[in-house]
Amino acid sequence: MVRGLYTAASGALVAQSQADAIANNLANVNTSGFKRTLLQVQTGPQLALYRQQVEPAGTRGVPRSTFVGALGLGAQVLDTPSVFEQGALAATGNPLDVAIQGNAFFAIQTPQGVRYTRDGQFSEDANGRLMTMDGNSVLGPNGPVRLQANGGAIQIDQHGAITQNGRLVDTISLVQFRNLAQVRPEGDNRFVATAAAGATAAGAGSTIHQGFLEKSNANVVRSMVDLIDAQRWFEANEKVIQTQDQANSWAIETVANSQK
Q1: C-alpha Rg value of the chain to the nearest Å
Q2: What are phi and psi of 139, to 5 degrees?
Q3: 3-state class of 47 per DSSP?
Q4: Can you tell me the distance from the alpha carbon of 88 to that of 217, in angstroms, rounded to the nearest whole number?
Q5: Could you read off the pLDDT of 190-207 as tens digits, one per residue?
Q6: How many whole angstroms separate alpha carbon 94 and alpha carbon 229?
Q7: pTM of the complete model
Q8: Are strands 105-110 and 137-140 parallel, antiparallel or unpaired?
């Protein structure tokens, strides 16, 4: 019966992790370029059960094992990948706001190294560098992207080329990955990629739209429904834990009384 407690507890922990993931998605429904998190669940390790039997006389009492079945140990979280579905594009009119249509990412320079983001809400610092909202440099083919001081109106084409007064000043790099499973969320609306992700320059399938921002792909209605499911899942496992605890108490009391 104690196994039942652990199995139900593992289910409750998974339900709690599901609620945490959904809550994070809901908290970022208005975050530009945010990609919702998906919780993947798998069964826990399984134990093989055998029945030990002693053969009849004449076999010298050699025991024989008969397979009964498998005993599951509950559920556990397998992974929490991001879902890279395209978010809707919203017009802002800001010339330094850019959105990606396609599966590419902006490359940015952070204190931890090169990272990637879909958030194209950029600004210009005092030195003319193109920056993210949290102060990281946007990267181009030759390093941080720099704009021309007092260079006039900024035009950014679909390939990321930046022109001022008809003169090309720099280009925003777009990066895509052969294996998105190796692109992991790091926090602060950015991603880190392992070597196995296979980073390459983005192809023609990804384009930049100036004056737009990509909205979060988290859906409020869907998230609320999933949150209710997670709550019911947790409550069901909680009820099993209470039932198992009552059964254990009854068994202990019964055995104690039988010994009197």
Answers
A1: 28
A2: -100, 145
A3: strand
A4: 7
A5: 999 999 999 999 988 899
A6: 40
A7: 0.82
A8: antiparallel
